[in-house]
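Standup notes
- DV: blocked on the single-chain target, sequence here:
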Amino acid sequence: MYALLFAVIYELTRNIVLTGVLHGTFNFQPILVFREGGAAVSEVMLAVLPLIVVAVWAYRRWAKGARRDDFGVQSGPSVVATDGGP
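- DV (later): unblocked, structure below
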């Protein structure tokens, strides 16, 4: 599930560092120890995900002006042969 989330975050921000930091953060599953066995803190995601959405939105808004070339149409070398070959 997180792979798709990270792909969307990267595509929206084009920032591999932000995506990598979030990936490392989500790899660490926090454990809150109230009892002997401890309890996973999945409810924290309810507070964290809206913050990530706001951070991605704010970064993209800033980067569209400051890093305009990163958000243009991506073009590279053509994969179509110019000599009519396969």
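- Follow-up: The chain has one domain: 2-69.
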